[in-house]
């Protein structure tokens, strides 16, 4: 048999095993192997071959009027491929008991920037006197049920911000990777919410404060990964398993959220007025199933 014919026969054999056309499937390796029917992938590197786009950092947002008027950066962030999968958030949250500083998300804190001869996505938080101008991206999908989420990221800036990559349904179905800029640069937080009980006491198994393996620090590029399967959450860093939890593994269809925020509270810490923090992302991949049959 010539090789072309062999390929055709093999393809026919594979096709015969599926009822209709074979759906794509994505297998994960590691201690939580699974197969997922769907994939979202965005690579923010090398988006500016001419070197003419995405030059500077957009101006910091210093008023609510600027925040409301800010458009989404033209280019990749307005492309069909990006808009299909992600929504840049513009909501805000008021001061509350453990959030002494108001928070307002803005289009202008999510942008592509050129550095180190490449490009990457940036989420920024900037502290004003009376509010923190923050950044958030949510998947358009809110029916993700089990996923392997991977991204390559680094964080720098003022020690009063929280960079989050997480699944979200509500505050009892939420699985988090968080980098607190007030932490030492080799510490990460992995949490399945709720982190506190109804009396406000911390639940010890909910949140882990981990030392990043292999001498890694979050100010440099690292590959973060959260595998959410039925009854098990597993966190990896640069391919190495770091933490597993069976406590409060989310059961509800969820969104995936990336954000960088601060509210002056005890978790994020308090940013200095006039200071900024940055979450930079080279790529993100989400292998997932949905709650739809
Ligand atoms: C995802 O769905 C496929 C069927 O489309 C199934 O074979 C697979 O086991 C599911 N993966 C997980 C992690 O539930
Ligand atoms: C935003 O604020 C930070 C912190 O003060 C500063 O380093 C940065 O240059 C500012 N960005 C712009 C575009 O001015
Ligand atoms: C998730 O939400 C469901 C429905 O509200 C709730 O019953 C459950 O306790 C929540 N948490 C987990 C981990 O399932």
Automatic annotation (TrEMBL):
Domain of life: Eukaryota
Keywords: Cell membrane, Membrane, Signal
Localization (cell): Cell membrane
Identification of the protein by name: Concanavalin A-like lectin/glucanase domain-containing protein
Membrane topology summary: Lipid-anchor; GPI-anchor
InterPro entries: Beta-glucanase-like (IPR000757), ConA-like_dom_sf (IPR013320)
PANTHER family in alphabetical order: GH16 DOMAIN-CONTAINING PROTEIN, GH16 DOMAIN-CONTAINING PROTEIN-RELATED
Pfam families cross-referenced by the UniProt entry: Glyco_hydro_16
SUPFAM superfamilies named among the record's database cross-references: Concanavalin A-like lectins/glucanases (SSF49899)
Residue ranges annotated for the GH16 domain, each copy included: 107-283
Signal peptide feature range: 1-16
Coiled coil (residue ranges): none
């Amino acid at each position: 048999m010539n090789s072309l014919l062999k390929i055709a026969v093999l393809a026919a054999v594979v096709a015969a095993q599926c009822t209709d056309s074979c759906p794509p499937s994505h297998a994960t390796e590691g201690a939580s192997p699974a197969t997922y029917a769907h994939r979202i992938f965005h690579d923010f590197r090398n988006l500016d071959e001419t070197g003419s786009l995405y030059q500077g950092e957009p101006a910091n947002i210093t008023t609510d009027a600027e925040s409301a008027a800010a458009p989404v950066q033209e280019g990749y962030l307005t492309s069909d491929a990006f808009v299909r999968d992600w929504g840049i958030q513009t909501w805000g949250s008021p001061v509350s008991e453990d959030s002494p500083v108001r928070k307002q998300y803005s289009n202008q804190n999510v942008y592509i920037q050129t550095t180190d001869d490449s490009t990457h996505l940036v989420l920024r938080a900037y502290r004003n006197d009376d509010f923190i101008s923050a950044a958030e991206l949510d998947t358009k999908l809110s029916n993700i049920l089990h996923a392997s989420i991977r991204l390559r990221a680094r964080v720098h800036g003022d020690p009063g911000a929280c960079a989050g990559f997480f699944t979200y349904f509500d505050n009892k179905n939420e699985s988090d990777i968080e980098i607190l800029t007030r932490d030492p640069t080799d510490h990460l937080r992995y949490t399945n919410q709720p982190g506190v009980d109804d009396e406000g006491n911390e639940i010890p198994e909910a949140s882990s404060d981990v030392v990043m393996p292999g001498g890694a620090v979050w100010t440099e590029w690292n590959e973060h990964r959260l595998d959410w399967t039925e009854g098990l959450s597993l966190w990896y860093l640069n391919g190495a398993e770091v933490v597993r939890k069976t406590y409060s593994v989310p059961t509800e269809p969820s969104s995936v959220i990336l954000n960088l925020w601060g509210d002056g509270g005890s978790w994020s810490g308090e940013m200095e007025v006039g200071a900024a923090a940055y979450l930079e992302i080279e790529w993100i991949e989400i292998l997932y199933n949905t709650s739809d049959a």
